[in-house]
């Protein structure tokens, strides 16, 4: 398994335009940029959380005996709508990443991008169940810290590919992913972190020259979000292909 760790190419994950159906990658990229830009420039709901922040500061500064007088957190219906819509768009990005993964696996099986899109639609209910299963634990405050996220991601990293390519169920996909990523979990974590931190650092450099609150910066931000979404989907596909190659297990050929 050490050999697999050495052979999984990180740079290959960044070649998001390297598909036979280049039109698909480009359309999906522009679509993600458009979604992000529109939702950031014209947010749904109330983005003003000043009342909540004042309440939070009061709680932080209050003595234990004075906490009762502080009252409940001040959050409006508009705030809740804003948070709900932002969360829904985050999940949208996750599924668009799965869509890219499906097309990538389809083309690796010498099939068209359209076949990959159709496969994604067929497996969408199972993918939704999978996302629900891995999302529920994060509703618990003690399990929502980044270290826990870093721990979970490598274990379930191959599950979407297994669900799409091998028609596994959500639970079976998770269990097989835990088994198939044995020996390469650290490699997966490092690749995800390198991708995330690299894009964040580039954005910070842009922020030095461009005001983060202007519309142009939001569009630039959307560019990097789109790149991350597609790269993450490709990274899952690349890792899956190398793992099944190392294990000499039949891949998705003929089943997409």
Shape: globular
Mean pLDDT: 85
Output the number of helix runs.
Answer: 12
Instruction: Please compute the radius of gyration using only Cα atoms.
Output: 21 Å
Beta-strand percentage? Answer: under 5%
Question: Roughly how much helix do the residues carry, as a percent range?
Answer: over 70%
Determine the N-to-C terminus distance.
Answer: 27 Å
Written overview of the protein:
With 256 residues, this protein is mostly helical. The chain has one domain (2-43, 90-246). The chain is built from twelve helices and no strands.
Give a brief outline of the structure.
This protein is an all-alpha fold.
Chain-wise SSE layout:
Blueprint (H helix, E strand, L loop, with lengths): L1 H6 L2 H4 L8 H20 L8 H12 L5 H4 L6 H32 L4 H23 L10 H11 L2 H7 L4 H11 L4 H25 L5 H32 L10
Features of the shown structure:
256 residues, 12 helices, 73% helix, 0% strand
